Amino acid sequence: MSSYLPLEGIRICDFTAVWAGQSATMYLADLGAECIKVENPYIWNPMTRAASPRIDATTCRFIPAWMGGHPESDPGPRPWNNAPAFIHVMRNKKSFTVDSRRPEGLEVVKSLIRISDVVAENLALGTLDKLQLSDDEIRKIRPDAVILHQPGFGTTGDYIEGRGYGSHIDGVAGGTILRGYRDSAPLTNTQIFASDFVAGTHAAVALLAALRHRRRTGEGQVIEMAQFETAAQMFPQAALDAAWNGSEHGTLGNRSIEGFVPNSVFPCSGDNVWVAISCRTDAEWEALVRYMGNPAWAKDDALATAAGRAQQEDRIEAEVAAFTSSRDQESLFHELQAAGVTAGPVLNAGQAAEDPHLVQTNAWKRLPATDDYPETEFPIPPMHFSQSDVGLRTPPALFAEHNDYVYREVLGLSEEEIAAMAAAGHIRDTYDDTVIQSA
Question: What is the rounded average pLDDT of the residues 50-75?
């Protein structure tokens, strides 16, 4: 297999934060682009590298794992180098530090933009403009640059001043009232928001399209990829039904938007053990009935069609749950599949990571320990190419890990210039004390 990578030779000047932006540039880095993360040692971007620059083991026990799941629940002195939120989106990237708010720092950033193909950001609207890096200014520096903006709510309209994380994007897009158990309150929803990753995937595809356009025409592009708009496309059935028919949608739990009945998760023997079952056709329903031993309650002729089953969905779910509750999950889902019923186990994170189907895809790669985390299995990129070895080439970039490479090899600064930047506090291997103490 060739060592050539699809985006080899492409460089990204990366100003992105949190998940939506950082996942977008990660996918391009996976494909071979050199993604250089611009990190300011005097500014803490919340949730970009950790929940806090001075989080401790006690705090970790009281916050969600995606924020506080540090190795052995011990963040150590540099939590920004081992936080789950950071590790997830920083593979195959490089990190260097500079305070772009100061004139000499801004000149360094401009030098990087001059030799970059993509400039990407999802910061608060107008942040780059305040740094004197408007689209027009970037165009002067690099006329054929592809510029990506991922504002929360676009650059026009009533919501343009809105700032937010995935929770806020999901709320405005409608996800908060559509996702959850039936009749549950939005505040009881999980704190994982799909809009972040949907936004990142959309932005990555848009960047690939723009780079292809530039290769064919020589023209750069400015992409506005509002995170709200990418989040809203997750719920087309609700949006269209509301717009055309005036219907209001609420939470369905695990029930099907396509009318499959039953379609839910059902308890198995053990503590919090579940199996997912979906009868997508009448034939699958008949197979489920046979597997359950043709119980009397299932002989009702009205249950022969999906429409009829929908009228008695509560009853069906209760009866199926009574049947599955005493059965072993592993045996049950295998037997259901063999009987012609769509079924599968509901796995927790640890079980999912060890699932034999996933393991056989070589989904993990063990990387050596650093000063901030132990030897660990990391997820590899999900893309596979027949003629390129797209994979996990470098571990998540530690803060300031590539200062020497960027300043010397990429930017070509002299020893005197590098010494001056270091003396001025731009080149650092940790956040400034003012950031750590004030967080």
Answer: 87
